[in-house]
Specification:
The structure holds two protein chains of two kinds. Chain A is α+β, with helices and mostly antiparallel strands. Chain A has one domain: Glutaredoxin (3-Layer(aba) Sandwich). Chain A contains four helices and five strands, in the order H-E-H-H-E-E-E-H-E. In chain A, strand 3 and strand 4 form a beta hairpin. The mean pLDDT of chain A is 86. Among the domains of chain B are: 105 residues, Glutaredoxin, CATH 3.40.30; 209 residues, NADH-ubiquinone oxidoreductase 51kDa subunit (Rossmann fold); 84 residues, Roll (Ubiquitin-like (UB roll)), CATH 3.10.20. The termini of chain B are far apart. About 2% of the residues of chain B have low confidence. At the A-B interface, helix 1, helix 2, strand 2 and strand 5 of A face helix 5, helix 6, helix 9, helix 11 and strand 10 of B.
């Protein structure tokens, strides 16, 4: 992305960003977003994030992209994890420990079965 | 025992009925019965739902899952997969962008994510805070582009003024007017400071904003700088917010690389640089003049005012100091216009407020809601009720320097005007919710301990006053109080309010004043009956010697009687 010099440049930059995101969602079927604001970190979000990364590698899940996001305000249910399958509504999980992360990967990602006990919102 | 496990709701607005909602309802009913689930699943209807393309809609609680459009063929699948096996039916799942009417209400009651009006936290928790792409894709930098390419600074200030935005740091000063003062100040250069030294205990709204959406603060500061005519900006960030600092650092670097910060922003001749400055953890540095002193490299002690920062601020130059939350409102106001912003909140207080909910409620966290909702709504809807069904006793608003609001005021709309009338202040938006197990004397003691520690010791009323207040309350909590102490507390608090140099000393006694106003009987109980009804203060029982001494001391009435009798003799 080059320097933005006008509103047209901004629009171009936005389109480029959109294309890049499009390419990512084609490359990766699942987007897993771990909420790593301070509240999440205090509740163990970094362990969860590490577990997701490690397990995705061990399970050889190449179509999963793991990223970070801020806090939506649900501090009581941290660590929060959002799982989005391309073209589908996101599923938000709460209180995701490394153990739950494993279940999400083995059930939700591998078999398409949502782990209902930890779903906060699915619509 | 009969336990309702799930609640299934079918939309029954005219459009849904037209599309066969009633048949779906009957089929669901029959299916649930035939699967033997009728003892565990309740079925009902909801009215207006909103998005037409998903009707008829079926909602399943407690997961707050929305399915739609549901046909008769899907009924079996929903019952079998979701209700029987507990699996969400992916093929029917719908994402409701804007639930309306009863559904919105229901979701606020039952779902984990109550409906909120989000302006400031619009992107927090949704975007990747390290990615400029994500920010751009969520309307980022539209406001700055609009401001720089099609608006004059005066127009921007006017727009902000029209929006009715008030400072969110606690004092609630109209933002547009403050900007106008700085622009009108004759001296140059001008500076702008974002106050991110969020040290009021229990407040973490600024942290949420910066950690979740750092670009929005930078965009807002750039707009503000353009409006007031500043080319240099500072973010004074609390030292403990290391993660927020890193994310801001990254955001500033990315913005500079893309011509959105630095020289020639958006191809115009406007230049603006942002410097990050981490505080060292002093509460007083959240006060704007102490913050400025600290930024200049001096000891963080407040200045005498006036002159105020808009005319004499950083290095003696006109300076705009705004809270992070205040600034985070700016991009949305510029993007949508002041008319749009004015639709939220109450006539005296426009817009939304981020509240951080703590204490004895079932659900703690941060919410953003329009100004003017009541405490009861916050506790019942967002906090999902008091923990263990205990009774609400009091709420402390706005951190340690905030007011104590008794349960009787929980239906007062929370906006600047109504609360001022009720003798309370909204402050920074922290809501510490306490149930009946909280002892007011103990609470006052904890708060005064904080102020005693944080007083910067520049002025005597605050330096000595905070110590003395603490000593008296500490004595009361240990059973060494006297009724006369209460008057002394009140007088001392009043003196501190009038004589202290800055907000710290002026507000240190606010909580105590409110406690004496609303809970005086409970404090007196500590003194007279040596009893703490919440069972928090450990008041030792009187020793036999003390009891004997108390009995041996003649009461005032006895003395008067004695004196009267001697006179007559």
């Amino acid at each position: 992305m080059s320097r933005i010099r006008s509103m047209e440049d901004l629009e171009t930059a936005r389109q480029q960003a959109h294309q890049r995101q499009q390419a990512l969602s084609e490359q990766y079927r699942f987007d897993i977003r771990v909420s790593t604001a301070s509240c999440g970190v205090a509740a163990g979000a970094l362990d969860t994030l590490a577990a997701f990364k490690r397990l995705a590698e061990t399970l050889n899940l190449t179509d999963v992209r793991i990223t970070e996001t801020g806090c939506g305000g649900l501090c009581a249910l941290e660590p929060l994890v959002q799982v989005q399958e391309s073209g589908r509504p996101p599923i938000t999980y709460g209180r995701v420990t490394p153990q739950v992360a494993r279940r999400i990967l083995t059930q939700h990602i591998e078999k398409g079965l949502i782990v209902p006990e930890y779903v906060i919102e699915a619509a | 025992m009969k336990v309702i496990r799930s609640l299934v709701l079918v939309s029954n607005d005219p459009r849904s009925v037209e599309l066969g909602a009633e048949e779906v309802f009957r089929a669901l009913h029959a299916e649930i019965r035939s699967q033997g689930l009728h003892d565990q699943v309740r079925i009902g209807t909801i009215g207006v739902v909103g998005e037409q393309q998903h009707l008829p809609l079926v909602m399943v609680y407690p997961e707050a899952v929305a399915y739609g459009p549901v046909t008769l063929d899907d009924v079996h699948l929903i019952v079998e997969e979701h209700l029987l096996k507990g699996q969400i039916v992916m093929s029917l799942l719908r994402f409701l962008q804007e639930p309306a009417g009863e559904l919105a209400w229901l979701r606020t009651r039952s779902g984990a994510l109550p409906v909120q009006q989000r302006i400031v936290l619009e992107r927090a928790g949704i975007i990747d805070p390290y990615s400029l792409d994500d920010y751009l894709l969520h309307n980022g930098y539209t406001a700055l582009g609009k401001a720089l390419t099609s608006m004059t600074p005066e127009q921007i200030i006017d727009e902000v003024d029209q929006s009715g935005l008030q400072g969110r740091g606690g004092a609630g000063f109209p933002t547009g007017r403050k900007w106008g003062f700085v622009r009108a100040a004759p001296s140059h250069p001008k500076y702008i400071i974002a106050n991110a030294d969020e040290s009021e205990p229990g407040t973490y709204k600024d942290r949420l904003i910066i950690e979740g959406d750092p670009f929005s603060l930078i965009e807002a500061m750039t707009i503000a700088a353009y409006a007031v005519g500043a080319n240099e900006g500072f973010i004074y960030i609390r030292g403990e917010y290391r993660l927020a600092y890193q994310r801001l650092e990254n955001a500033i670097r990315l913005a500079e690389e893309h011509g959105l910060l630095g020289d020639a922003i958006f191809g115009t001749d406007f230049t603006f640089h942002i410097h990050l400055h981490a505080g060292a953890g002093a509460y007083i540095c959240g006060e704007e003049t102490a913050l400025i002193e600290s930024l200049e490299g001096k000891r963080g002690q407040p200045r005498a005012r006036p002159p105020y920062p808009p005319s004499y601020g950083l290095w003696g130059k006109p300076t705009l100091v705004n809270n992070v939350e205040t600034l985070a409102n700016i991009p949305a106001i510029i993007r949508h216009g002041s008319e749009w912003y004015r639709q939220f909140g109450t006539p005296s207080s426009r817009g939304t407020k981020v509240y951080t909910i703590m204490g004895n409620v079932n659900f703690t966290g941060a919410i953003e809601a329009p100004l003017g909702i009541t405490l009861r709504e916050v506790i019942e809807i967002y906090g999902k009720g008091m923990k263990h069904g205990r009774r609400l006793k009091l709420v402390q608003t706005g951190g340690s320097s905030g007011s104590i609001v008794p349960a009787s005021l929980q239906d007062t709309p929370m906006d600047f005007e109504s609360w001022r009338k009720a003798g309370a202040s909204l402050g920074s938006g922290a809501l510490l919710i306490c149930d009946e197990r909280t002892c007011v004397v103990d609470l006052a003691k904890v708060l005064l301990q904080f102020f005693r520690f944080e007083s910067c010791a520049k002025c005597t009323p605050c330096r000595t006053g905070t110590q003395r207040l603490y000593q008296i309350v500490d004595a009361i909590s240990k059973g060494h109080g006297a009724l006369a102490d209460l008057d002394e507390l009140q007088q001392l608090g009043k003196d501190m309010e009038l004589l202290s140099n800055c907000g710290l000393g002026q507000t240190a006694s606010v909580a105590l004043r409110d406690i004496l106003k609303h809970f005086r009987d409970e404090v007196e109980e500590h003194i007279l009956e040596r009893k703490c009804r919440a069972g928090v203060c450990r008041i030792p029982a009187l020793s036999p010697y003390e009891i004997a001494a108390a009995a041996a001391t003649p009461s005032q009435a006895a003395i008067e009687e004695f004196e009267g009798s001697t006179e007559s003799v």
